[in-house]
Design a protein that fits this description.
With 35 residues, the protein is mainly α. Helices cover 66% and strands 0% of the residues. This is Transposase.
Length: 35
């Protein structure tokens, strides 16, 4: 597997989506965090 370069904004989006997937936050809160 190689390197993946991401901006801070992209990394934040991935983290929020992972939290939604894990059930730690709901979709509405995730949408608010993503703007």
């Amino acid at each position: 597997m190689g390197w993946v370069l991401m901006s801070e904004r992209e990394l934040q989006r991935v983290e929020v989506l992972a939290q939604i997937d894990d059930g730690r936050i709901d979709v509405q809160n995730g949408a608010h965090l993503l703007g």
